[in-house]
Design brief:
The complex is a heterodimer of chains A (214) and B (246).
Chain A: H1 2-6, H2 8-41, H3 45-60, H4 63-76, H5 83-107, H6 112-120, H7 125-140, H8 142-155, H9 167-178, H10 181-210
Helix pairs in contact in A: 2-3, 2-5, 2-9, 3-5, 4-5, 5-7, 5-8, 6-7, 8-10, 9-10
Chain B: E1 6-15, E2 18-28, E3 33-37, H1 44-50, E4 59-64, E5 67-68, H2 74-81, E6 83-86, H3 98-110, H4 114-127, H5 143-155, E7 161-165, H6 173-188, E8 193-196, H7 200-206, E9 209-214, E10 217-222, H8 224-229, H9 234-244
Parallel strand pairs in B: 3-8, 3-9, 6-7, 7-8
Antiparallel strand pairs in B: 1-2, 1-4, 4-5, 9-10
Classes of the chains: A mainly alpha (214), B alpha/beta (246).
Chain lengths: 214, 246
C-alpha cells in the first residue's frame, strides 16, 4: 500500500486523465451514435449505406488496431494531434458504433402508428425523428447504453499502449519502481470498479427518471 | 358549386395482386360529412388513408381543397397539417403527457407561442371532456379517453378536413358513445369529415351521405335515410342485414 500512498499525486493526475478521456468520449459517442442511427433510418439511401458501413467497420476492427493506426498512421498522413486527443477521437468514433446499434434496437420499440400520426400532423421526417422517435428509442435503451459506457471506461485503459499516462499506465510505472504488484494493481482495479459502479447506478437512476409512465 | 374539399378521380391502388381501390371517383363538399362503410377488406380504410397520402396511389388524381396532392416532402407536410387524422389505434405519443401531445404539432409545425398552444390545447381538452387528464400519459387513460385526446390533437392544427379511420373499432362498447358524441359535435359545428366506421347509428345521425364500398369499388352512395331505408344494391342490402341482425 505504501507505494500507492507515496505516489498518490501522479496516480490521481493519471486518474484525472482517465476520467477526462471517459467523459469527453462518452458525450461524443452518444451524440455521434444517435446521429449515425438517424442516418441509418433515413430515407436517403446514401446516408443509410454510409451509416451501415460505419457501424460494420468499427464493430469489426479491434480497438487496439484502430488506436495504433491513428497514433502512427495519421501523423504520417500529415495529421498531428496530441496523444490524448487522438485517443479521445478514436474512442468516440469506436463507441459511437455500439451506441448506434443500441439506439437502433430502441427505435424498433416505437410503434409505427406514432410515426404515421406525427406525419399526419404535418411534422417533417426530421421533426418526427427528433420529437417522437428518438426520445422514445433512447428511453428504451438507457441500460444498454450504460453498459456501452462501462465498456468505454474499460477501453480507456488501452490508451496506455500508445503512451498516454492514464490510470493503467501510471500504476504500471509505479509498479516498475516499487515492485508491489498486488496492492498496486488491486487499487487500480478497485478504482475502475468504483467508476463502473457509478456509471451503472447513474444509468439506473436515469432509466427510472425518464421511464415512460404506464 | 364551390370547390370540393376532397376530389378523387379514377383513383387506383394495388397491394401486389390485390386491387384495393378500383378507379374510385368521390367528391366531398366543404362541411359535408361522408361516412364510408363496407365489409373488411373492401378498401375503405385505404381510401381514407390515400386522402393525406399516407398511402400513395398508383393511378388517378386526388385534390384536397382544389390542390393536387404533392409528392412526399415539405409541401405534403404542409397539406397534412391542414388535414386532421384520427386512427383506430389512437397513436398518441407515449412519452408525452396528453397536454404535450396536443401542443406538439402547433409548436413545431405552426410555430405558435407556448402560451397560445397551451391555452388552445386546454380549451380543446375541455371540449372533448378530458381537461382533468391533461397531465396524464397516454397509457394511463382508457381507450375512449385516448381517442378523445387524439381528436383534440388533430383539432389543435385547425384542420379544414378531418379523416377518421375506424375511430371506435378498438374501443370497449361502453366507450364508443363518448367518442361518437365528440364526433357528432364536430359534424354539427360544420367540420368537413370523412369517417370510415361500422357505427350505423352514427351514420344515420351525423352523415350527409353514406358511401358503401365493396371489393375496392363504390357500390352505392346516398343520404343516410335513403341508404338505410331504401337500399338499392343487393350487396349493400346483404351487408346491412348481417350488420343489423344483432
Amino acid at each position: 500500500m505504501t507505494a500507492v500512498i507515496e505516489n498518490l499525486d501522479p496516480l490521481l493526475r493519471a486518474l484525472g486523465t482517465t476520467v477526462l478521456i471517459l467523459v469527453i468520449s462518452a458525450v461524443g459517442s452518444l451524440v455521434l451514435g444517435v446521429l449515425v442511427t438517424v442516418a441509418r433510418v433515413s430515407p436517403i439511401p446514401v446516408l443509410r449505406g454510409a451509416a451501415f458501413a460505419y457501424v460494420q467497420v468499427f464493430v469489426n476492427v479491434p480497438l487496439l488496431a484502430l488506436l495504433l493506426l491513428a497514433v502512427f498512421a495519421l501523423p504520417d498522413a500529415g495529421l498531428l494531434m496530441p496523444l490524448t486527443t487522438t485517443v479521445i477521437v478514436v474512442l468516440t468514433v469506436y463507441e459511437a458504433a455500439y451506441v448506434a446499434e443500441a439506439v437502433r434496437s430502441g427505435i424498433n420499440t416505437v410503434a409505427a402508428g406514432q410515426v404515421e400520426a406525427a406525419r399526419a400532423l404535418g411534422l417533417r421526417l426530421s421533426q418526427t425523428l427528433r420529437h417522437v422517435v428518438v426520445p422514445q428509442a433512447v428511453r428504451a435503451v438507457v441500460q444498454p447504453l450504460g453498459n456501452v459506457m462501462i465498456a468505454l471506461l474499460m477501453n480507456t485503459a488501452l490508451a496506455a499502449t500508445v503512451g498516454v499516462v492514464e490510470l493503467t499506465s501510471a500504476v504500471n510505472k509505479v509498479n516498475l519502481v516499487a515492485a508491489q504488484p498486488i496492492p498496486i494493481f488491486t487499487a487500480a482495479g478497485l478504482t475502475y470498479m468504483a467508476l463502473a459502479l457509478a456509471i451503472g447506478l447513474a444509468a439506473g437512476r436515469i432509466e427510472k427518471k425518464v421511464a415512460i409512465h404506464r | 358549386m364551390s370547390t370540393p374539399m376532397v376530389s378523387m378521380r379514377g383513383v387506383d391502388k394495388r397491394f401486389g395482386d390485390l386491387h384495393v381501390l378500383c378507379s374510385i371517383d368521390l367528391d366531398v363538399a366543404p362541411q359535408e360529412v361522408v361516412v364510408v362503410i363496407g365489409p373488411s377488406g373492401s378498401g375503405k380504410s385505404t381510401l381514407c388513408r390515400t386522402i393525406n397520402r399516407l398511402e400513395p396511389i398508383d393511378a388517378g388524381e386526388i385534390r384536397v381543397d382544389g390542390r393536387p396532392l404533392p409528392e412526399e416532402g415539405a409541401q405534403l407536410a404542409q397539406l397534412r397539417a391542414d388535414v386532421g387524422m384520427v386512427f383506430q389505434s389512437f397513436n398518441l405519443f407515449g412519452h408525452l403527457s396528453v397536454l404535450d401531445n396536443v401542443m406538439l404539432a402547433p409548436l413545431k409545425v405552426r410555430k405558435v407561442s407556448k402560451a397560445t398552444a397551451r391555452a388552445e390545447a386546454m380549451a380543446l381538452l375541455e371540449r372533448v371532456g378530458i381537461a382533468d387528464k391533461a397531465d396524464r400519459f397516454p397509457a394511463q387513460l382508457s381507450g375512449g379517453q385516448q381517442q378523445r385526446a387524439a381528436i383534440a390533437r388533430s383539432l389543435a392544427m385547425h384542420p379544414k378536413l378531418m379523416l377518421f379511420d375506424e375511430p371506435t373499432s378498438a374501443l370497449d362498447p361502453e366507450m364508443v358513445s363518448e367518442v361518437l358524441e365528440v364526433m357528432v359535435g364536430l359534424a354539427r359545428d360544420g367540420m368537413t369529415m370523412v369517417v370510415v366506421t361500422h357505427e350505423m347509428g352514427f351514420a344515420r345521425r351525423a352523415a350527409d351521405r353514406v358511401v358503401f364500398m365493396d371489393a375496392g369499388q363504390i357500390v352505392e352512395e346516398a343520404p343516410p335515410a335513403e341508404f338505410f331505408d331504401a337500399t338499392r344494391s343487393e350487396r349493400a342490402r346483404s351487408f346491412l342485414s348481417n350488420v343489423l341482425a344483432h
